[in-house]
Hints:
By secondary structure, the protein is of the alpha/beta class. Helix content is about 30%, strand content about 25%.
Amino acid sequence: MRIAIGGISHETSTFANTPTTLRDFENDIGLFRGSQIFEQFCGSHTSPNMCIGGFIEAAQIHGFEAVPLLWTFAYPSGLIVRSDYETMKAEFLDRLECAEANAPIDGVLLDLHGAMVIEGIDDGDGDFIASVRQRIGPDRPIMVTQDLHGNHTRQRVVEADAIIGFDTYPHIDMAERGREAATLIVQTLRGEIHPVMALRRIPILWSSACQVTSHQPMQCAIAKIHQMEQRPGIISITLATGFPWADVPEMGASVIVVADGNEALARTVADDIGDWVWEHRHRWHCKPTTVYEALQAGERIGKYPIILADQADNTGGGAPGDSTEVLDTFLKIGLEQALILYIVDPHVADKAHAAGVGARISVAIGGKSDPVQGPPVHMDCEVVALADGAFTYDGPMWSGLSSNMGRSAWLRQDGVSVVVVHAREQPLDTSFVRTLGIDCTAMKYISVKSAVHFRSGFEEFAGSIHSVNARAIHTHDFAQLKYKRCSTDFYPLHRD
């Protein structure tokens, strides 16, 4: 049994003005070809944290030959350049054809995201799946893993045999979902199951703060899904909360049910869950909180550090990472033992490196990518520490994965510290800032440019956590988003 594995993964913000290029795929987590996929994800600490690693683990468990084609991931950003996408897709399909020349390929496992948008292609994932389907024909199975934040479409359900989405946010179950998809393709090829799917879309704009799967209300929704998966004939259920910063026609939350040969059952269960989610729609939305309100709430609790999730400038969703409202507020209040993680400002980082540790520099930080991000904040600050940006994640989400923030600096004015970096990457754990000598547990106030993923590395020592809607392009006040291509008939924009 030979099963091809690979994929192109990207979460695309159509509100971000920075295009995503082939170079981004090559330079972010990376673009790996053939045996390079095994070298990166097999037998390393990274394999438990990626779906592609789960595919490889399942091959060892079930005894099939995993045929690696091409796998790549670029950090969330703006629209993917069409010619670069077509280049990557063509190479994937060419590698699939070459693999077929050696011996038949029995099926394909695809590790995709679910919110990929290309210039001129609204449903990038659907286009990619359809291209693979066209190449291998209708009779061989295609199983796809997708993020919790997929904007799922009818095209994907038609072209794939099964779509398996994440159950956790932060996403710590990626390898598990990869193993699940690989197990299903083996069972399908053996004739043990005959997967069919149904899609139910739900007109809800789901607040990130209400998606943390280890807390209510999302914990209840995942429990509901797992309960329904126990019904006879049900193979898998995916609840996707959607990605509202992709202005595409089929944006939004959805349910995908995979049943064993019974499409009517899949449809019934998908509708039952969709109706239940809609009936409880008020639970999936929370009013945006200001920076001041969040600080006041944290002080009432009285436990430290108080962590503010600057979710509207979440670099993990494609935001620029240089909004300034939280930094400006910290300075105006005169907070002590306060830390901002991170502000993307290569110019300031380079100036700090030129000045050296111990120097005092006068800089205008942030606010350079888009007027919506707020104006730059002027600081007369000390250069406390410098780093080249190289580090290795050691938290639950991407443990063992090496990354690089580029030339970076720890700057401090009075009691407020800020880490300025070159790369747009959200803080999943404290591994990078420790290279600068920062002890986050000693801080009283921390702001992270992340919506939820930071919890994987920060929640264990947080005194309290508060999601804030500071000024930035990825506002969670959805009424402020200027949708042009998708319907705005969503709760809570229209409560009926």
